[in-house]
Amino acid sequence: xxxxxxxxxxxxxxxxxxxxxxxxxxxxxxxxxxxxxxxxxxxxxxxxxxxxxxxxxxxxxxxxxxxxxxxxxxxxxxxxxxxxxxxxxxxxxxxxxxxxxxxxxxxxxxxxxxxxxxxxxxxxxxxxxxxxxxxxxxxxxxxxxxxxxxxxxxxxxxxxxxxxxxxxxxxxxxxxxxxxxxxxxxxxxxxxxxxxxxxxxxxxxxxxxxxxxxxxxxxxxxxxxxxxxxxxxxxxxxxxxxxxxxxxxxxxxxxxxxxxxxxxxxxxxxxxxxxxxxxxxxxxxxxxxxxxx
Amino acid sequence: xxxxxxxxxxxxxxxxxxxxxxxxxxxxxxxxxxxxxxxxxxxxxxxxxxxxxxxxxxxxxxxxxxxxxxxxxxxxxxxxxxxxxxxxxxxxxxxxxxxxxxxxxxxxxxxxxxxxxxxxxxxxxxxxxxxxxxxxxxxxxxxxxxxxxxxxxxxxxxxxxxxxxxxxxxxxxxxxxxxxxxxxxxxxxxxxxxxxxxxxxxxxxxxxxxxxxxxxxxxxxxxxxxxxxxxxxxxxxxxxxxxxxxxxxxxxxxxxxxxxxxxxxxxxxxxxxxxxxxxxxxxxxxxxxxxxxxxxxxxxxxxxxxxxxxxxxxxxxxxxxxxxxxxx
Lengths: 293, 328
Fold this sequence. Notes:
The complex is a heterodimer of chains A (293) and B (328).
Chain A: E1 3-8, H1 11-14, H2 18-31, E2 33-36, H3 46-52, H4 54-70, E3 75-77, H5 80-95, H6 97-109, E4 121-123, H7 124-131, H8 134-140, E5 149-152, H9 167-171, H10 174-181, E6 185-187, H11 205-221, E7 226-229, H12 232-240, H13 242-249, E8 257-259, H14 260-267, H15 285-289
Parallel strand pairs in A: 1-2, 1-3, 3-4, 5-6, 5-7, 7-8
Helix pairs in contact in A: 2-14, 3-4, 4-5, 4-6, 5-6, 7-10, 11-13
Chain B: E1 4-15, E2 21-32, H1 38-49, E3 68-71, E4 74-77, H2 83-86, E5 92-96, E6 103-105, E7 108-109, H3 112-120, H4 144-147, H5 154-158, H6 160-164, H7 171-181, H8 189-196, H9 210-214, H10 221-234, H11 241-255, H12 261-276, H13 278-285, H14 301-313
Parallel strand pairs in B: 1-5
Antiparallel strand pairs in B: 1-2, 3-4, 3-5, 6-7
Helix pairs in contact in B: 3-7, 7-8, 7-10, 11-12
């Protein structure tokens, strides 16, 4: 069975967190997952469009989902907020046929193919842990983590609100499973399913820095050598901005953080260049060197 | 159902003379059926093992909100939580007081700061110019889920913003505020929205949705906050970084289809704010992470503009409606 998807990387993966997109493409290539580009797909509007223009937000989501539907593929993303935004809209379209009809009239008027509510937004992480053949995945991991202690930071929007997700999507901790498959040791810590604060980073900076610092220090206190997330926005706060958080809370953290696809790529023997490891603010080199990576 | 072995690991807290709290964990091995409530077992411990254990409880029916406490990773009502659902593989159930609030003794917290926040949103109807003279049969579609709130504080205890900013109004109080903004009989909706647009209120919610998941009464406080933001923007209450940030999205999507991370900062914080943020820009630049000021437009962007214009001309109401409020 070939795994083919309409690929929706999200805005951050096309701009500040580009390395997550590179890593996702590299990993998929090696695992035989085909990612088809979505040239018409716009920004999903994240949490904000639903607040300012709720009807337009649903129409934008329907237009994105419709493009994937026309490709006869489920949509796959590497951003938790895109996943939640599209899943939330999809959940409503499937539960409220009248709403879908109203939104489809808007699409039709604008010359957009109406959405039939037949596809499902997925996270690339779920595809790797649930849909890729387990033996193939294990065979591809040629440079295992040899017990490296890895903190999974799950990110809010891939877990909550529970009502829009299927139970197994949120209850199975995909990231912890993947860490074990990669030969690492998942670290359990208090902040693992809490919030990175991304969505208020510009308006409540000090608070977000404190949240990032708390989460990273929790993980480090529990023995984590590296942190991974399934979300480009969590990556931005916990990784790219971590050193600014250090200044705000006046405490050293220095916990290397990366997208799950980057760490998976390293264990699959993909070059650090292709995975954009040099773009990480906190060099994971010393931690990875302890297990010969 | 057969009896199982559990260990209640309870955080014992005592306030000290200096205003601090001394804490230690105490284990109580117990046997119980998995569907026994945590509250029943706490009562058993207090009645038969250690009468000094302090916790709040009253109705035992998930209606008074007294027994909210931190149980195995989440804040829950002890009377509504079955021990079998919260014990780990070794049968351990960790129990501690609610978070984000001052501890008085063992599992009891000082509820005053939480209730002060609720009082702070003026939780009663006010007369004024915005009062509707007609109340339609659908008027309570928006209010129902919020009126289920029993003020137990579970949401506030889990709130990721309250944890780092004690000034944050918090999910329960904001949900309560929505209940009045959405009530047609309320006379000062505009004034309320203006106040709620101030710092540490609606725009400070992280949208983490923990409050939605822990609420024992399905109030969905975050959804109420989202609706308050929508009403604030629609009512012209847009003079805050949070509101400007939210507004930047629909401009960008209409213009190019893609969010422009370069100008997003500028529009959220204004020119002076952005200059203050040059630290962040320089920091990101160290790794070549400055987003392009000209992200590629998506194909068919004119479709997005047509959708937008159509909806401006013929708006549709897509607001979620609360389920009928029925007693459990």
